[in-house]
TrEMBL record:
The keyword Membrane applies. It comes from the Eukaryota. It comes from Myripristis murdjan. The chain crosses the membrane at residues 12-31, 37-62, 74-95, 115-136, 189-208, 220-238. This is Transmembrane protein 121-like. Pfam families: CECR6_TMEM121. Belongs to the TMEM121 family. The keyword Transmembrane applies. Keywords: Membrane, Transmembrane, Transmembrane helix.
């Protein structure tokens, strides 16, 4: 399989290293949580799974690296989907192992709490870095204006903040808690965050891809609408329910404040872009005004009628008479 465009080898290597490193860290958690003969079986299983994923990554990463300098991000979306799909499966098993642990000693509880917080830290670093690498905003050479590139960079920053918001909700499930949540609530929260991590970054990448070379930032409104509904509003209710119903003291008040501010900012942006879409273009109005002025001037100034050219035709049909010469008799 040969890519149709020149390959960006540094981008491919960086993506592969980041993805495989994060998966290897999850494998280390899975192997460490098991003891005895079961550890060997888990180690063989995760190594076989990583080998299969590495084969897929070899081709998808090459194609994603070949479209870095273009307006397309199709293979970047596929790579992100596969990456989150595998990573979240590993995180789910790590979470279930944490949940099954019976911690009784204070020192063991402190060590377990540190391991869980380190897991949260690793996810909050690996996922945004992989997403920014796949977006490759600094390699978008087709985006010439600096203002448009900064606009896209600010939108990708909002995606990163939303990723951290979703991870904060998901991390509340495996970090130490005094009172456990109901089983159906835990399952619903985990898989809701799983779907958001799968879909929303792909939506952001697809908006960049659909815009093509002529990127118009105010037309990229699908992701802000989805994130406003699925992250800023629903996660606000999730945190509020955990805090009020289940007395969960680990709910992040900072993220709740972030959601309130994001709701206000995104609502104002949607209203502003709605007015911008309904208003006629400024250049079109100026052209119409100029055309009206030209037509008015043409009507008000009288134009003289063209004078037909006068042609003088001489009569060359008559032959002039020659004078008679006198002869001698």
């Amino acid at each position: 399989m040969v890519p149709p465009r020149p390959l960006n080898k540094p981008h491919v290597c960086l993506c592969s290293i980041l993805i495989m490193s994060s998966l290897a860290l999850m494998d280390a958690y899975l192997v460490e949580q098991n003891h005895g003969p079961r550890k060997i079986g888990v180690c063989i299983t995760v190594l076989a799974g990583d080998a299969c994923f590495l084969i897929v990554l070899r081709y998808v990463a090459v194609w994603a690296g070949s479209e870095v300098h273009t307006a397309k991000r199709g293979y970047a979306m596929i790579l992100w989907f596969f990456y989150i799909f595998i990573l979240e499966i590993k995180v789910y098993f790590v979470y279930q192992n944490f949940k099954a642990q019976d911690v009784k000693v204070d020192e063991e509880e402190a060590e377990a709490g540190l391991a869980r917080r380190v897991l949260t830290l690793l996810l909050s670093v690996c996922m945004p870095v992989v997403f920014i690498t796949l977006a490759a905003i600094d390699h978008m050479e087709y985006v010439r204006p600096y203002k448009k590139k900064e606009e896209i960079r600010s939108r990708l920053f909002w995606v990163v903040v939303d990723l951290l918001d979703v991870l904060d909700v998901q991390a509340n499930l495996w970090e130490l808690q005094r009172k456990g949540l109901p089983l159906w609530v835990e399952g619903l929260m985990f898989f809701y965050c799983y779907i958001l991590l799968l879909v929303l970054p792909c939506v952001s990448l697809s908006e960049i891809s659909m815009q093509g070379v002529n990127i118009v930032p105010h037309r990229m409104m699908l992701y802000p609408i989805l994130s406003l509904a699925t992250i800023n509003i629903i996660t606000l209710f999730i945190r509020g329910g955990n805090m009020l119903l289940y007395s969960d003291s680990r709910v992040s008040g900072i993220m709740m404040g972030k959601n309130v501010i994001a709701i206000v900012v995104k609502s104002c942006s949607l209203a502003q872009y709605g007015k911008l879409r309904d208003a006629p273009p400024a250049g079109h109005g100026v052209e119409m005004h100029k055309n009206c002025d030209v037509q008015t001037a043409a009507v008000s100034v009288p134009v003289p009628l063209p004078v037909p050219p006068q042609v003088v035709i001489e009569d060359f049909t008559t032959i002039p008479e020659e004078p008679e010469c006198e002869t001698d008799a």
